[in-house]
Amino acid sequence: MKRKVYVMLQLCMVFLIFTSCGGANKSTSAGLQTQEKSDNVSEDGKANAIKDTAVVISVDTENGIVNLQSVSTWQDMMLNFTGGCDVQNKYGEIMSMTELKGGEVVEISYESSKSKLYSLQISDTAWEYKGVKGPEIDEIEKRMVINGKNYKFDNNLVIISEGESAMLMDINEADTLIIRGIGKDVCSLYVDKGHGYVRLQDEEYFLDGYVTIGEEVVKKVTAGMMLVVPEGNYNLNIQKNGIGGTKNITVSRNEETIVDVGDLKGAEIEQGAVKFNLTPKEAVLYIDGVQVNHNELLTLKYGKHKIVASADGYHVYSGTLKVQSVLKELDITLKSSETDNGNTTVTSGVTVTPGVTVTPGITVTPQTTQAAKVTGIVTPGLHATPIVTPQVNIVSSGEEGTGDTQIAEEAANESSDTSTNTGSSKIQVTAPAGAEVYLDGNYMGLAPVSFHKTSGTHTITLRKDGYKTKSYTVYLNDSSEDTTYTFSDMVAE
């Protein structure tokens, strides 16, 4: 009898063990497809570890906590880690959690019930773009163009700025981004270098003149303007009618830099800044017989300068540049020596020879049909006028071509972008009440305020004494309807 009871007990134990394993398997198969239980059962209890792909939001090394967002469920996770956590870079090399940045796409192993992270490795299948500025973003279609390639994103896109989560409208075209994703999906935007603000003081003399800040900003001076500028050190140049000067400034992230320009109104400008863009890029540039680095912003004295550009397989370009005021860019595209023809065309009433393109606001008068294509991208209010030449001389293939371009200043409208006027429709900013409202750097009034709507991408900046200045990037369509923005309360300093 005792033997029979003992056998029955053994059978019951086997049954319980069998049903227990079956239950565990059922739980695993019911999980998300991108999450997996670890195949290895180790002595430290990792049998219940889940494998997943996630995006790093923040790392608190002092308290041993990492904030992640699962790519499979898009849920936030706060996981604890210790010095025993296995942390590796994408090459499988050991790294520290202090080296981990927000926005990284990682492969993790963790136990949900214990909120414990066992291992983390930067994904070797994720892609990464560094140094991205102004990616093309379509919030409606959820598309993003990066370096000419199309990607998609959704409402779970992770955006990190200064260690905190942010929104798309917090990203400014002045920011430098690191963008990461998998396949055609964008997983995260990380603001690697942000922006600050520059306000001019005692600027009345320079109203309707121009201010330039490094190579980043060229704007017509308006009363009470505030400029959004990438953080860094710059030369600020301001001038009107040939009078002005330069000051060195430092712009810090999310902070205001006030620049008093009143002491510059008596100085006489004797030099201007010129940025050359040469095609092909390997072309060399000589100014007044001296080779220069055309990849840098160049400072030239007022007056005429002889410029020569050349590259193997292209005709040499030779011309005269007359510097009289601020010039942002001058593009020179050399003509291939293999594509000559002798025809002359007429564009917008201007006679142009092959290889020479006339764009709005700039006129180029060459002395040969073999001259380079020259276009000028100049500051708003500036245009190029030709130095008079008596005729166009035809030279044989392979000979040097010449051309003259004179840069001059003239009153014009401030904006040169391609935004569309939307008629009588308006933008309304209703909150935060009492905040100064700026549109693309120009002061519009105190909230609540309304002003004319123009389609396109714009920056709305809010400022109020005692609070941190804040800017938002907005995308306005070309509909005739008014657009209203009620921004959140500003953060006290």
Quaternary status of these chains? Answer: single chain
How large a portion of the residues is in β-strands, by DSSP E? over 45%
Distinct helical segment count: 1
From the alpha carbons, calculate the radius of gyration and give it in angstroms: 31 Å
Low-confidence stretches: 1-7, 11-33, 38-44, 341-418
The N- and C-terminal alpha carbons lie at a distance of 84 Å
**How many beta-strand runs?**
43
The biggest beta sheet is recorded as:
7 strands, mixed
Helix content: under 10%
Mean pLDDT: 77
State the secondary-structure class.
mainly beta
Shape: globular
Number of domains: 5
Structure description:
The protein is mainly beta and 493 residues long. 6% of the residues lie in helices and 47% in strands. Strands 1, 2, 3, 4, 5, 6 and 7 form a seven-stranded mixed β-sheet that branches. Strands 25, 26, 28, 29, 33, 35 and 36 form a seven-stranded mixed β-sheet that branches. Strands 8-14-15-12-13 form a five-stranded mixed β-sheet, with no helix packed on it. A hairpin with a 5-residue loop joins strand 3 and strand 4. The chain starts with a helix and ends in a 7-residue tail after the last strand. 30% of the residues are buried.
